[in-house]
Structures are given as structure tokens and as C-alpha cells.
């Protein structure tokens, strides 16, 4: 039985990068991947010419140093920065004017800046929601100064020249719209604002890659495939459909067993199993057991929810199809989402962001709408059949766009990363307010620490304190662990 220098568990971004790096150094590498495809949370939905990333889609911080850009360039994959396009906001009563939309966005952005790493640090139990929606929140500053009937501005009497009843009610509507728009932050966070820790809000903002976004041509999954192919060119072996069920250290060698009982041996292992999956594995999976602090970090670090709903139409029937890059739908209903809510009730009560692929802001436009579902609607929609969800969303769109008749979607797709046994969620979230002691970004550092004297390493987005939750985090972690293992193997051979 061959003994590999390194066995890599998982062929997502982190595993692919680690495999390429180590194999290019002449190390013998075996990659074991449970799915029948590579890419993991890089997953491109394809139908004819329509290709849509239903996992990761953007190279965030494209001009700001994201390493995924250099990987695309190295592999000859074109990348596209979207041309500017309108971002339209639909309020409960219809399309907002651009000045209304701009002022809502400006207020939200000012509030976000105000809550970047607040100092002095708020108590660990304070949530981002408590600050954003508090009575003195900068989110409502512009609404409050003009609204005497509002309870937002008790310490600062309003300017009487703006205190007509009409102005008061429109400012209340602004406040409701601001709260609804702030809920859109739950999409990238992967969790409700009530769960996000205020103390650590914005912790990543100075280090993560942000600013410009670009999309790799042909989708993210194909780019991972190219990285894996490079590793195979350097003699790495890749086994798909191979789910690892146990990892054991025996006599200075690591034995990895898959679900069929097949055994593989390596001097080192890099585990890229997603955090959500690690949480579900029996503790006996690793023997000897992982360090207690690692186990605690696995238990306490949060994995968020983000799903995508894709509707492909025979033609683009919605307004502003040629000019709008995205539509944000603020809720029309204040009814709380419950276990008995219908899909339509869920959509009506949620803040939804829909990307419009018909707009030629990227090459190859198509009559396609892609909607991001944050935790609350995503989990509630899970209780319904995808076909029912698609039909309800189509009718929701018709009513919000004020269109009476339109063709139904010809194809559709609803992701389910949350129950996918090989993902168990979208990505890790920023630090949370937790009943199990204070969580902090150090959790991600803890998850990156090697075990078993350096023979067992961990990579993956969850292991990158600075870039968690992103392709950049997965790439950086794969490179980090490959370099560490390479050094370890050199020292081991030198004795
Ligand atoms: C809906 C969505 C949208 C996103 N959007 C973006 C975005 O626009 N930009 C961005 O930067 N990031 C985005 N992300 C995050 C990004 O996709 C991830 O951070 C990144 O792909 C994670 O890579 P990874 O290697 O850490 O994990 P994964 O890609 O999950 O790879 C882990 C691999 O391990 C395999 N595996 C699991 N268990 C086993 C086992 N027991 N044995 C063998 N193999 C196993 C899995 O099948 C998987 O292939 C998004 C994620 C989602 C879900």
C-alpha cells in the first residue's frame, strides 16, 4: 500500500490549492473527495449557454489583492468586472425614486460605518440589531431630525418647518424602509442581525478583500477544476465519490478510511471538511481525539445560511431589464414568518435581493433572475417543495413589478446548502452573540491549529481569521497549510 506524503480531504478551493502547491513541490499527494465533482461550495449551474454560480460567484476585492484573481490569470480564465447598472429598490408601495433609494442607502452605510469595531467594546451580549435599531441609531438620524411624531429623536426637538403631518408619516415610512433595508445585511452575514456580535462588527473590514468584484468567465467551479487538473499534471491522485469516515494516527503514520472501508496511508493529512460537517461527525472520527480547544471551537463557531433561487425565463418580461443590475424588494407584510407560512407569505415578509442577468453589465446576458435568500426566508422555505417555491416567487415577482401576465420560468433551481450533508450551511459567519460563552475571531485561529505534532492540518474558509467565509479565505488557507506541511515533511526527512 503506497504511503502518500499528504492526503488531502476535500476538493473544494482550499483542497485544490493545497494539492497544487504540494504536488508542484514534488510531494506525493492523494485528494479524497466525497462528491462526484470537484469544487465543493464552488458550484456552477449549467443549462445550455446559461451558467450561473449557485455557490460562490464573486472574486471580492478583485483590484484589492484577492488571490483568486492571480489564480484565474495563471490558468488563462478571463474575469469580468460588471459595468455600472442601476440598483432599484421596491418599497411596500412600489418602486422608490432614485433619490429615496439613495438616501436609504446613505443612511444604512453611515450606520454601518458608525458600528465598525465600536469602542469602548460593547458587552459580548450586545447584538448588531440592538445598535442598528436602537432609538439613537445613526440609521434613523435623517428620519429623526425631521419627524416630531417619531420616538427616535426624543432628545433633539425637530425642526418645526418640517413637522407637517405629511412629513411625519413619510418619515415613519422611511424608518420602516430603513429597518427593512438593513435586513439585507443578513444576506452576506448569513445570520440574523440579532445574532451578530456588535463587539466584533467590522472586525474583518480592514483585512478582507473588498471594493471591486469580478466574476470568472464560465463560473467558479471550472476554475477550481483547472487548479485540480494542474495538480494532477504534477502527479497528484484525485479520487471522487470517496467520503472519509475516519482519520487515525498509528505508529507515526496516518490511516484514512472511507465509507466503503478502503484504507489510505499518509505521512500527513490536510483536512478541509467544512465546519458545518465537522460539527456533525462523531468524535471518534479523529483518533486520538482532537484537542479540547479545537473541539470547543468546532462546537461554538457558527455556520450561516444563504441560499440562491434561480429562475430562467424564455424572455426578460420585467421592467428595466436592460438597465437594472439588481432589485431589492422590501417587505410588504409585517406578519411574522412561522412554520405555517406559505411561500408567498414568506416572500412578502422578507427583504430579498434579486440579481438581473438580463442586464448587459456582464458578458452573455440571459433572461435570468437570481435571488439571494437570507437565513429567515431560506429556512422557512425549506419546508416547502422547490416547485411550490418557484411558482410562488414567480407570482410574487409579477405582483411587485406590476405585470399582469408573463411567461412562467422555463427552468429553475433552489439551492439547499443548509441540509447538504457535505456542506451543512453556506459559510462561517462573523462572531455571534452566544449563550455558550463569548465567541470571537480567535475561534477561526483555533480552527486553523494543526494537531498530532503537525501531522494533521486544517484548511478551509473556517480556518482563516482574516478572510473567513470567502474564496479568498479558502485559497489563503490551502496555501498556508500546504507550505506548513511542506516544511514539516522537509524537517521530517532531515531527521
Ligand atoms: C451560496 C454561497 C455564495 C457564496 N458566495 C461567495 C462569493 O461570491 N465570493 C466568495 O469569495 N465566497 C463566496 N462563498 C463562500 C465560498 O464558496 C467558500 O468560502 C469556499 O468555496 C469554501 O471552500 P472550502 O475549500 O473551504 O470548502 P468547500 O468548497 O466546501 O470544500 C470542502 C470539500 O470537502 C468535501 N467533503 C466534505 N466532507 C467530506 C468527507 N467526509 N470526505 C471527503 N470529502 C468531504 C466537500 O464535498 C467539499 O468538496 C459563497 C458560498 C455560498 C454557499
UniProtKB/TrEMBL annotation:
Family label: Belongs to the flavin monoamine oxidase family.
Coiled-coil intervals: none
Gene3D superfamilies (UniProt xref): 3.90.660.10, FAD/NAD(P)-binding domain (3.50.50.60)
The protein's Enzyme Commission number: 1.4.3.-
TM segment ranges: none
Biased segments, Low complexity type: 155-171
UniProt-recorded name of the protein: Amine oxidase
Species classification: Eukaryota, Fungi, Dikarya, Basidiomycota, Agaricomycotina
Gene Ontology terms, MF aspect: chromatin binding; flavin adenine dinucleotide binding; oxidoreductase activity
Pfam families registered for this protein in UniProt: Amino_oxidase (PF01593)
Amino acid at each position: 500500500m503506497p504511503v502518500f506524503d499528504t492526503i488531502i480531504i476535500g476538493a473544494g478551493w482550499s483542497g485544490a490549492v493545497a494539492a497544487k502547491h504540494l504536488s508542484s513541490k514534488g510531494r506525493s499527494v492523494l485528494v479524497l473527495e466525497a462528491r462526484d465533482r470537484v469544487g465543493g461550495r464552488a458550484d456552477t449551474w449549467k443549462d445550455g449557454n446559461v451558467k450561473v454560480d449557485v455557490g460562490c460567484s464573486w472574486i471580492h476585492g478583485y483590484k484589492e489583492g484577492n488571490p483568486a484573481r492571480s489564480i484565474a490569470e495563471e490558468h488563462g480564465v478571463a474575469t469580468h468586472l460588471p459595468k455600472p447598472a442601476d440598483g432599484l429598490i421596491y418599497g411596500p408601495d412600489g418602486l422608490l425614486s432614485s433619490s429615496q433609494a439613495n438616501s436609504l442607502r446613505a443612511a444604512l452605510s453611515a450606520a454601518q460605518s458608525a458600528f465598525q469595531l465600536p469602542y469602548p467594546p460593547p458587552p459580548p451580549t450586545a447584538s448588531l440589531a440592538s445598535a442598528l435599531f436602537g432609538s439613537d441609531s445613526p440609521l434613523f438620524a435623517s428620519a429623526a431630525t425631521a419627524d416630531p411624531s417619531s420616538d427616535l429623536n426624543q432628545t433633539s426637538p425637530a425642526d418645526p418647518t418640517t413637522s407637517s403631518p405629511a412629513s411625519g408619516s413619510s418619515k415613519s415610512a422611511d424608518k420602516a424602509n430603513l429597518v427593512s433595508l438593513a435586513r439585507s445585511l443578513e444576506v452576506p452575514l448569513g445570520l440574523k442581525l440579532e445574532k451578530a456580535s456588535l463587539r466584533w462588527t467590522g472586525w474583518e473590514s480592514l483585512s478582507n478583500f473588498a471594493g471591486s468584484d469580478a466574476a470568472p468567465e464560465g463560473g467558479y467551479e471550472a476554475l477550481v477544476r483547472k487548479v485540480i487538473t494542474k495538480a494532477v499534471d504534477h502527479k497528484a491522485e484525485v479520487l471522487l465519490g470517496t467520503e472519509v469516515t475516519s482519520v487515525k494516527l498509528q505508529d507515526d503514520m496516518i490511516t484514512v478510511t472511507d465509507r466503503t472501508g478502503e484504507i489510505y496511508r499518509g505521512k500527513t493529512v490536510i483536512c478541509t471538511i467544512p465546519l458545518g460537517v465537522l460539527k456533525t461527525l462523531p468524535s471518534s472520527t479523529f483518533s486520538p481525539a482532537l484537542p479540547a480547544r479545537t473541539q470547543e471551537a468546532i462546537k461554538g463557531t457558527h455556520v450561516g445560511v444563504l441560499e440562491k433561487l434561480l429562475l430562467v425565463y424564455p424572455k426578460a418580461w420585467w421592467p428595466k431589464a436592460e438597465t437594472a443590475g439588481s432589485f431589492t424588494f422590501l417587505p410588504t407584510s409585517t406578519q411574522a414568518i412561522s412554520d405555517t407560512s406559505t411561500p408567498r407569505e414568506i416572500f412578502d415578509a422578507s427583504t430579498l435581493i434579486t440579481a438581473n442577468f438580463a442586464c448587459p453589465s456582464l458578458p452573455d446576458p440571459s433572461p435570468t433572475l437570481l435571488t439571494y435568500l437570507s437565513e429567515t426566508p431560506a429556512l422557512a422555505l425549506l419546508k416547502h417543495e422547490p416547485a411550490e417555491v418557484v411558482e410562488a416567487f414567480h407570482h410574487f415577482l409579477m405582483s411587485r413589478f406590476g405585470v399582469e401576465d408573463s411567461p412562467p420560468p422555463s427552468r429553475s433551481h433552489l439551492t439547499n446548502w443548509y441540509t447538504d450533508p457535505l456542506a451543512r450551511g453556506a459559510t462561517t459567519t462573523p462572531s455571534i452573540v452566544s449563550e455558550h460563552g463569548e465567541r470571537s475571531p480567535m475561534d477561526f485561529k483555533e480552527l486553523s491549529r494543526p494537531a498530532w505534532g503537525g501531522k494533521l492540518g486544517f484548511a478551509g474558509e473556517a480556518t482563516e481569521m482574516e478572510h473567513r467565509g470567502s474564496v479568498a479565505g479558502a485559497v489563503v488557507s490551502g496555501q498556508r497549510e500546504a507550505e506548513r506541511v511542506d516544511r514539516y515533511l522537509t524537517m521530517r526527512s532531515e531527521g
